[in-house]
Amino acid sequence: MSELFDMPSDLQNSYLGLVALHLREALLPVLAGLLASLPIAQLCVRLRWLYPPVLWVTTVLYAIPSLAFFVILIDYTGLSELTVMIPLAVYSLVVLVPAIVDGVRSVPQETLAAATAMGFGPVRRYFQVQLPIAAPAIIAGLRIASVSSISLVSVGMLIGNQGALGNLLNSGMIYNQPRLIWLSVVGTAVLAILVDAALIVVRVLLTPWMPRSTSARRLTAKEATR
């Protein structure tokens, strides 16, 4: 699977290439986790008894140290990107499943009744009514999962995974090059900040009805009391 996303070797050898590979190894698992979380969360919403065991399982999996998870997978996926991506996708479930469940459950029953009266079936109502209203909660979960994934990708260098910014950290420690260490640490932090900011922008674009700032929320509250 990782071969589908391979980049030219000259790009991999540049700093921007490492940044691109780091983002790929961090964000593709979050995307996979989101796609898996959507049907799981919907089942938990419809079958309330299912939510506690699902939450328990995802929490137990999240408790497995990332390095131990990587080592377990080496026998099956080798020293590849999948060895890093699979645990990160699993870790994202513990954040995304509760975020989606809580967001969908927050949709008012009156809204669901109105959608049903308009002829919306369960699937259409889920994607066109419940998920858009739950978007703020879902994106909040995505922000946490993405930042966590970006930081954990660097741990992959301990098992020989190539391409991420963690390799700069490893090389800096081996060859006593503080510059490489700083490039790795600062680069990872900047990536996390930029991705988090991008998701905030996405939230603003998807939920134009929500106040965009504290002052806006205060203004809305004042108008509501008039």
From TrEMBL:
Keywords (A to Z) from UniProt: Membrane, Transmembrane, Transmembrane helix, Transport
PROSITE patterns (UniProt xref): ABC_TM1
Gene Ontology CC: plasma membrane
Subcellular localization(s) per the UniProt record: Cell membrane; Membrane
Pfam families assigned: BPD_transp_1
Keyword Transmembrane belongs to the record: yes
InterPro entries: ABC_transp_perm/SBD, MetI-like, MetI-like_sf
Transmembrane annotation, as ranges: 26-47, 54-76, 82-101, 133-160, 180-206
Bilayer topology term: Multi-pass membrane protein
Sequence ranges assigned to domain ABC transmembrane type-1 in this UniProt record: 15-203
GO biological process, one term: glycine betaine transport
Domain of life: Bacteria
Family: Belongs to the binding-protein-dependent transport system permease family.
Protein name: ABC transporter permease subunit
Organism, scientific name: Streptomyces cupreus
